[in-house]
Design a protein that fits this description.
mainly alpha; 10 helices; membrane
Length: 352
């Protein structure tokens, strides 16, 4: 099975969604249209839930957790749709299979990168806990140790993650072009094509927001506006424009981070420094207790948010992996070399 190395690959192997809306070709039955409309209605409902009531909710760990959970649901719905359409994987064109496997590896790469960054951010929790422990003492020596822990925390959080640095190029590949070689006329294939297009848009959008938040750069791939021929286009475009604009504004301010919970911790740290750096005997106990309490609450909220988001990213990894494994299992009886199609050992680490 050949894989041209130089061709620009689309995110999903089912062709240009605009082509399927042409009156030419196979006519889609009313029953299939109802299936498609039900799928797109659920997709739109998920997108609506991601539209924040306030700009302060944007790029928070809680919003990112909700976004990743919605992504898991949409990918699970695609699996269910394939079953409902009775479109067995073994009947797919070889090029579809080739591209699907290639894309699934890229999605797994993103999951591994996001998980590694969440783990790195969580590692700073111990430094914050050490600082809080020392700040509960009235000893000037303990304050010096607290400053040291906070300095190390800022240095740790401010460092770069090589895996996150690679996300931009992966997202560029995923966005790509939607055009692929023509596939055989199939009403079921057209329904699946349009459904997959919606999930593709949602996937690249969510992952691009994650990459921007974790990398500290707004250069990550941004999904273009969706044409209004789709029932969910208006909702998606509203969400896209709101989130992208807020991220752009935050980056323009040159803040420590665009992540709400992380910025809250940093704000408390900045407020503590003038109090505990070399002026121990002028500290007002009541003021110090208040700020230390704020830092403690912000630290706990950050830790809890990171833990919840980590679980959702892990869930998405499993959704992608099980979908990939299901494809391989369906093909294995008739193709013993399918595992080598994309040059990746399924049991090996996805990201080096």
């Amino acid at each position: 099975m050949s894989r041209p190395q130089d061709a620009k690959r689309p995110f999903f192997p089912f062709g240009n969604p605009f082509r399927m809306l042409s009156p030419k070709g196979t006519k889609i039955s009313q029953q299939l249209l109802l299936v498609l409309h039900a799928f797109e209605a659920k997709l739109e409902e998920r997108l609506k839930k991601l539209i924040p009531k306030s700009k302060d909710e944007i790029v928070s760990l809680s919003w990112m957790t909700l976004a990743m959970h919605a992504l898991c649901e949409s990918h699970n719905d695609i699996k269910a749709l394939i079953t409902d359409l009775e479109l067995p994987v073994c009947d797919w064109d070889e090029k579809w299979i080739d591209v699907y496997l290639d894309i699934s590896v890229k999605l797994l790469d993103l999951c591994v990168a996001f998980s590694s960054e969440l783990s790195r951010l969580n590692q700073g929790h111990l430094l914050l806990q050490c600082a809080l422990h020392n700040l509960r003492s009235s000893s000037s020596e303990q304050y010096v140790r607290a400053c040291s822990s906070l300095d190390r925390w800022k240095q740790h959080i401010g460092s770069r993650n090589p895996r996150i640095e690679k996300c931009g190029s992966i997202l560029d590949d995923l966005l790509g072009s939607l055009d692929i070689p023509k596939v055989k006329k199939s009403a079921k294939g057209k329904v699946l094509m349009q459904a997959m297009y919606g999930v593709k848009v949602q996937t690249v959008f969510v992952c691009s927001v994650f990459a921007a938040a974790f990398s500290g750069s707004s250069k990550s791939t941004s999904v273009p506006e969706v044409a209004d021929i789709y029932s969910w286009a208006s909702t998606f475009n509203e969400l896209r424009n709101l989130v992208n604009e807020e991220i752009r504004v935050r980056f323009s301010r040159g803040g420590f981070t665009v992540l709400n919970e992380l910025e809250a911790v940093n704000s408390s740290v900045k407020e503590l420094y003038p109090i505990i750096q070399g002026v121990a005997d002028t500290i007002e106990t009541e003021s110090l207790v208040k700020i230390v309490g704020e830092l403690g609450r912000a630290t706990e909220k950050l830790s809890q948010g990171l833990d919840l988001l980590t679980k959702e990213v892990d869930s998405f990894f499993q959704v992608v992996m099980t979908g990939r494994d299901a494809l391989l299992s369906n093909l294995r009886p008739g193709d013993t070399v399918i595992d080598s199609i994309v040059g990746v050992n399924r049991d090996a680490q996805v990201v080096n």
